[in-house]
């Protein structure tokens, strides 16, 4: 049964009840008047013995009944008109928001997830419309996230196929060269074997990265969160990797370092830094590049964070690609690479997910004097 029909039936019942009550009220008043006259003027009904006197009494009674009926009809007409006006207004105030909600639901059904209801009246339906908009916003966020995940999976499969095929093709070619005797000297054979070993190591690295990425993506990756200072992180990084990367043509330099106490998984934070150092070493355009590591702290709405900056002097990236550097298998065009040398594109994506599990973030900025600045944010320890 529709709301309009229910209101109509309710109004009919209301009118019947009012009419019955009014008639009962009139009958009671009439009875009271007659009984009052009888009790206060006992001789009145004795005097009214003649036919003329009785007719006069009936005339008075009929006049009272007629006056009461007119008053009743006037009041009933007033009630009916007032009720119709109020009911129509009530129906309009109920049906209009319901129609708006119905239109909104149809828009969401038709995949218009950006549709929002505009309702300004301050009544019960305002909360309903606000809740609808919140639902639509959350649904849009969920759908967009799911679409992004699906695109990432497709890119993952495509990128994995490409990055596995490249070293496999090289291994196959060099094995065929060994089989056919192309490497006919010990020096060539050693060179072929070294290449095969290098490509096998590349394959192993990609597979290990894929395994780590899948565990992170499935949120089945344990973290050993501890407190550590940013000074210890940077100093440990310098002590462990400065000499190694010096041989790769990348000089690690420490800049201004603040001594903030942060929470992080010490083992995996080193993995994050190594991924960044690998990219800087791989994409430097000079024979010897530099990367400056510094730190500071910043206040955010979510709380105070420590920031560690890793600024290299490489070619940088186009500004429009900064937000995509941490996507799965994303690679900037060959102008970023050295002689076309490219990685798997998984390192920075893994770094972003590792930091997310630690409650931190990572972003990329262009250096003021060139190069690429990777900024790692870590939450400060409680009370620090």
Automatic annotation (TrEMBL):
Location(s), subcellular: Cell membrane
Native organism: Leadbettera azotonutricia (strain ATCC BAA-888 / DSM 13862 / ZAS-9) (Treponema azotonutricium)
PANTHER family per the UniProt record, alphabetical: SENSOR HISTIDINE KINASE CPXA
Name of the top EC class for this enzyme: transferase
GO molecular function, one term: phosphorelay sensor kinase activity
UniProt topology in membrane: Multi-pass membrane protein
Name of the protein: histidine kinase
CDD domains: HAMP (cd06225), HisKA (cd00082)
Ranges where the Histidine kinase domain occurs: 159-382
KW rRNA-binding (keyword) present: no
Gene Ontology cellular component list: plasma membrane
Transmembrane segments: 12-33, 64-86
